[in-house]
Write the structure tokens for this entry.
Amino acid sequence: MIKSWMVIGGVAFVVALGANIITPGDRKWFKRLQRPRWLTFEAAIPVIWTIIFICAAWSAYIVWEQNPGTTPTWVRMGLYLLLEILTIAYTPVMFRLRSLKIGTILGGAGFIVGIILTLAVLPVSLWAALLLVPYLLWSPIGTYTTWAMIRLNPQDA
């Protein structure tokens, strides 16, 4: 029998693969953009997001195990999926459209969905809600960074 953590982890992994739908030209566009001087941690960003996604998947697992298969649980799983899709879409959509404004909008939308999800999860499990806190802390930093890059790269807004 397939365990719920395997399904949740598998779905998270498959959705995360969507971030790889970028071309060399897309990467070149992003690498040439000016960054804020305070952005000294850019190399750590992939590690940070990996930890955040692991926490979110663990949170989803806790929520699923509390009331597996119920309509409220399925709705919460849909919110987890929406959050991951918005978060993963940031890179390929922003790169493909070459628009920092779109990246900022996606980042902001993800943060709003993150708040809604955290509030929806809180009555089910405090631990599941706490596992979403890294997302709620980091997402605004990434969104603000993208917004700050608009001022440095107005031609790529």
Remarks:
- Residues 25 and 31 are 10 Å apart (CA to CA).
- The two ends are 49 Å apart (CA to CA).
- The helical segments are 4-16, 24-32, 45-66, 71-97, 100-121, 126-130, 133-152.
- The chain has a mean pLDDT of 95.
